[in-house]
Amino acid sequence: MGRRNEYQNLIAFHPGIYVEELIEETNLSQAELAQRLGITEQTISRLIDGDEPINQDLARRLADFSGISLQTWLNLQAKYDDKVAEIEAKQKKDNF
């Protein structure tokens, strides 16, 4: 799906953007963060690229590492999903 989905004045930012910021703030590599979270490098890469959703387990791992609440991570994903659905519905409507 991608990190940023945009249509007309609607924009959806994947929560992977915030994971990338977390990596920059902690001066870790993707591999180091993956190891600390107990997930694969591929999962981190897909998350940052916007191709991996944040599920309950990943949100818990991110919360434990970052101090940002589990609910915040889940809310970021939910807001992204809602906005993508809104964009897709608008595109579909506009194409008729």
Keywords:
96 residues; mainly alpha; 434 Repressor (Amino-terminal Domain); two-stranded antiparallel sheet; 5 helices
Task: Characterise the protein shown here.
The chain has helices at 16-26, 30-37, 41-48, 56-66, 70-94, and strands at residues 4-7, 10-13. With 96 residues, the protein is mostly helical. It has a single domain, classed as Orthogonal Bundle (434 Repressor (Amino-terminal Domain)). A two-stranded antiparallel ribbon has the order 1-2. Strand 1 and strand 2 form a beta hairpin. The longest helix is centred in the C-terminal third of the chain and has 25 residues, at 70-94. The protein is elongated. The chain starts with a strand and ends with a helix.
